């Protein structure tokens, strides 16, 4: 009891570290946003920024910001918030590896209201392409500015940013969230940002999660300032990496395929599709010495990503995983939603 007869609070809310499981773009973006708000954060993960394991999706992404089709208005807003943060990093923080680039999107069918057309409400310099500006076998096309993130620069940037704001990383594999509860008995908030790990964590076992293999061609070229995108009967992108003088050619999605081997048939097909979209950038037969290959596993989830909170005993567990091919496009928007959830919990601890 305190002097006035009120029970004293041993550890105030803000001093109980928030524990994040997962150091991919989702866990690290959440850590950065929470640290900016003054919370104490510890990130626990088997793979940390800088690692290159095939299952650590964030190391291998393209990673372009593209408006996703088929998502709810709330999810669109999360993407919009993410775009805002990435744009600011591109302008103010050159070491973040985020760049503003031109874009050309080619559309096969007249766009429905549910399609990626909503991107025009937030992307700068959005305009319809005129016939002749896009290949004749497409229905229409759009030009706009978007942001691309180079994960080989962005993940180390995040590692340094989180550390400089006082965040802590612990390299550790856990088999269940319960292990974390035992390791951090004072903590009340746990964020599960474990990507595909959520399929096997013993107290999560989310059977909607599935691995989805991606394989890209990394082509070194000085023509690396325009993003090309076609998402319809085929799923083809050319993602520029201006800081590395290269472009990423893709894509492919192979459910439940975990092979680390480069499939040269896929690579040849991706080069051919990219050449069709942008022959001025990708020649029919790029020199072999200018090519290398990227293989990574996306953390996909049937029905889309999970983002919610659950009270488990005296702990709040926030789940943020299953972002498939869009983790970078959602990243900082998700971070901000998680901050709001934490602040809501904080508010409930204030005596009213
Ligand atoms: C080829 C390719 C191209 C892509 N292109 C794009 C793109 O253009 N735009 C875009 O937005 N996205 C793109 N993505 C998708 C993007 O990479 C993912 O959505 C994103 O990286 C997912 O981040 P995450 O943090 O959820 O998961 P991950 O990056 O996989 O991180 C999961 C973390 O959880 C940890 N973990 C898991 N289980 C455990 C456990 N049991 N114990 C301890 N730690 C654990 C891991 O070690 C890791 O730190 C692409 C992906 C691929 C593969």
TrEMBL record:
Keywords, comma-separated and alphabetical = FAD, Flavoprotein, Oxidoreductase
Q: Which SUPFAM superfamilies match?
A: FAD-linked reductases, C-terminal domain (SSF54373), Nucleotide-binding domain (SSF51971)
Q: Which cofactor does it need?
A: FAD
Judging by the UniProt lineage, the source's domain of life is Eukaryota
Under Gene3D superfamilies, the record lists:
D-Amino Acid Oxidase, subunit A, domain 2, NAD(P)-binding Rossmann-like Domain
Q: Which residues form the FAD dependent oxidoreductase domain?
A: 18-340
Family recorded in the similarity comment: Belongs to the DAMOX/DASOX family.
The molecule here is called FAD dependent oxidoreductase domain-containing protein
* Organism from which the protein derives: Aspergillus pseudoustus
User: Which lineage?
Assistant: Eukaryota, Fungi, Dikarya, Ascomycota, Pezizomycotina
